[in-house]
Structure formats: C-alpha cells, structure tokens
C-alpha cells in the first residue's frame, strides 16, 4: 500500500502551500528570506512529504496522518441530484438514481484521496460526471445496459486522483468528461465560460 506521504501533488496543492507561507510571513512566523526559500521548495515539490516539509515547523498548518475514509450515499427518485463547486468528496460515493437526473462535478472539488470509488445503482436516469483535469479513470467494473454511454476521458497517466467506477447503469444516459480549462494563478477558467476560485 502506498504511503500517503509518497503521493504526488498537483499544482493547486503547491499554490495552496505558497498561500499558507504568505500567511506565515504576514504573521512574522518566518522571515522574507525563509519565505523565498520555502516557496521555491514548495513549487518544486513532487510528493506530499516534500510539500509538508516546508511547513513542518509552522504551527497549525500541517495536517499529519492519513485522511479517514468516508462514505456518502446519494438517493434520487423522480428528482435531481447536483454536486458542484468546492464540495468535499468522500473516498466512496454510492449513487442511487431512479428515473432522475444527476450531475456530479468534481472539477474543482476538494479531493483528499488518491482513489475515489463511485458505485452506481441507476435506472432510467441521466447521469453526468465531470472529472478534474488532473485525474485518471477506471471504469472496468462498471456495467452499462441499454444506456447511452459517452466517455470522453482518455486513458493515460495523469497526476491526481483516480476515479474507480462500479455498479450498474440501466437505461438513460451516462456521460463522463473533463472540462476544458485555462488556469491563471488561483483562478480556473472553464469553457463554456465559468470561473471557479481554487485557493
């Protein structure tokens, strides 16, 4: 099992740590010289261990240990389910949809896990998943029957969380995609035009 400290980090995590260093500088917890050195180290960090190393002696900013796993069940009958924006994603998500509409937008969500498991129990529903730009997808355990299935996520090694899909989708539609994005510092611009803050 991979040690959480060895997990790869994304640009947004590096930028978040630089933001914490800004706050530490403003509170005189570090000197301007330390800020410069630590910011450079944060931007060059490849793993969580390296990234946490620049914060380890600053009180109140490093989260130690592993993130506890969480499970969330979403149920919908003849109604709508929507999750979007900066919502907290659990390690395991179970989606029960019966003749409903479901949108799960993970693009800028908070995902503290290396693997997110999504189990479907879907019948005659319209389901849309928007995965983060930096993510991978494993749909090998998913069963799709009499359903319009559109998967626009190309396989390949992309840094970030892996989404593992399982369960059954019977009837309706299932669309999986990633947003086209343009990142400008702490702002992510998505097309069609939508701006999300990611700091």
UniProtKB/TrEMBL annotation:
Residues 7-59 form the DUF1707 domain. It comes from the Bacteria. PANTHER family: MEMBRANE PROTEIN, MEMBRANE PROTEIN-RELATED. This is DUF1707 domain-containing protein. The lineage of its organism: Bacteria, Bacillati, Actinomycetota, Actinomycetes, Pseudonocardiales.
């Amino acid at each position: 099992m991979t040690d959480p400290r060895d997990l790869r980090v994304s640009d947004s995590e590096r930028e978040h740590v630089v933001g914490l260093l800004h706050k530490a500088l403003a509170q005189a917890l570090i000197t301007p010289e330390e800020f410069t050195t630590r910011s450079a180290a944060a931007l060059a960090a490849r793993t969580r261990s390296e990234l946490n190393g620049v914060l380890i002696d600053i009180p109140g900013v490093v989260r130690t240990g592993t993130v506890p796993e969480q499970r969330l069940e979403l149920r919908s009958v003849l109604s709508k389910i929507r999750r979007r924006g900066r919502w907290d994603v659990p390690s395991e998500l179970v989606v029960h949809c019966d003749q409903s509409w479901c949108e799960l937008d993970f693009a800028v969500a908070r995902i503290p896990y290396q693997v997110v498991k999504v189990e479907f129990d879907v019948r005659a529903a319209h389901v849309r998943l928007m995965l983060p730009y930096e993510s991978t997808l494993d749909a090998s355990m998913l069963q799709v029957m009499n359903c319009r299935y559109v998967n626009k996520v190309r396989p390949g090694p992309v840094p970030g969380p892996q989404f593992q899909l399982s369960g059954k989708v019977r009837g309706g539609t299932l669309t999986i995609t990633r947003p086209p994005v343009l990142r400008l510092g702490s702002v992510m611009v998505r097309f069609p035009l939508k701006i999300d803050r990611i700091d």
